[in-house]
Amino acid sequence: MVAFTPLRPVTKDSRLFCVIRAYLTVVATTLLSSSFLLQAVSRLFYSVFHTYRRSLLTWNFHYFLIAVQWTVGFLTPITILINYDHVIHRTDRIMASPFGNGFHIEITHNDNDESEFDIKELYTREKTLQLRNIYIPNCIELFYRHSPLTIVRCQGTYMYDQLENRYLDCINNVAHVGHCHSYVNKQIYRQMGACATNTRYLHDNTVILAEKLSRTLPESLQQIFYTNSASEANDLAIRLARGFTGNYDILALDNAYHGHISTLVELSTYKFKKMKKPTKIPEHVHIVSIMIEFINS
Q: Torsion-angle region of residue 177: left (phi > 0), alpha (psi -120 to 50) or beta?
């Protein structure tokens, strides 16, 4: 692995510049490595063939070896220039160019708007949409179905399509600290690389986070349940409320969406209204109209 800092930040506008630098770096590394081999061959000739085959000791033969070395050095990594797919943009100020059997270059840069992962499209938008219609249920919503966006990467508050058009994300309810937050990514990577299991075992981070969360809550709320999604959290809240109060009925706002699991879908008239078959609201669910409907009436 070779790592270096470029003379200027590597951005999407300087992709060719980065590719050329990657190529020249591989060339320089190849020439440097092969120069040691060339020196070893030269010393072998002088120690073994110094009494016969003196043609191997001439300057002309050594010039020939140097010419072969430079030719191989410049031709070996030529695929970097021919095939741009070798180049992968990464965040955290890194640009990588894989080459050969795991050999690659890492170029550090300062553009936080670059993606850490390979964002190359495998299919056209039409092909992706066709496969989605085959394998992904239609009940899973697709925004702008008449002309859906192909989002290939996200950064901060923005999403980017395959043409690098930027969209301000005012809908996403998952990335609470912005998309691809470098600190969050780093901490997830570090933890996943060390240990990824459940809370049935002791781990310091389990109680460290729980303690931090409890400090933001009233003193009577000190115990923390960890969940993987808002749906799980809402389902757990219902279970806790029923266990504490002994009541079963639930008030739910009309047009609201609370989650995708069974106990929450039955509270979400937002989902009922989209179902093709009429769906009866369970008896224990009581729908409350939102204020705007009272105003309109």
A: alpha
